Sequence to fold (153 residues):
Amino acid sequence: MLPFRPGDYGLLLRTHRSRTSSLELMGRARGFDQNTVLDRAVGLFADYGYKGTSIDGVVATTGLSRGSLYAIFGSKRGLFRATLHRAFDQRAHQAGDLVLVALLELAPRDLEIRGDCQQGYAVLFADDPALLGARLLLRAGISTGKELQCQQL
Fold:
């Protein structure tokens, strides 16, 4: 565990392609709230999916520059994982949709995302596993009779 939160004044944890981490001190505080950025990104990924969400769309919706986006999250995948974790922690309305996006688009090829999905499943669907299927059908526009329960996820 790091002795700071990634959002703290100018501290930035950057994961490089070699999968090593280095801590860099930046010269000024961030001019945005990272949680607000993540909350806006949740909506994009939930509505358009991972593949349908472009970096240009993220930049336009969040107000971040490309440079800031990549400096903080490293990649579109890094942003997606951060939104996934925030949605689970907050039990956000669209967390169920993010789990479905992750399961359908990324988990078959990405072990870390698959692990994230297992955590999300435990948080959101363990009490009633049928809700996952009902959420998928609702997302596809098919009525299941569990719409009210699904909309709460």
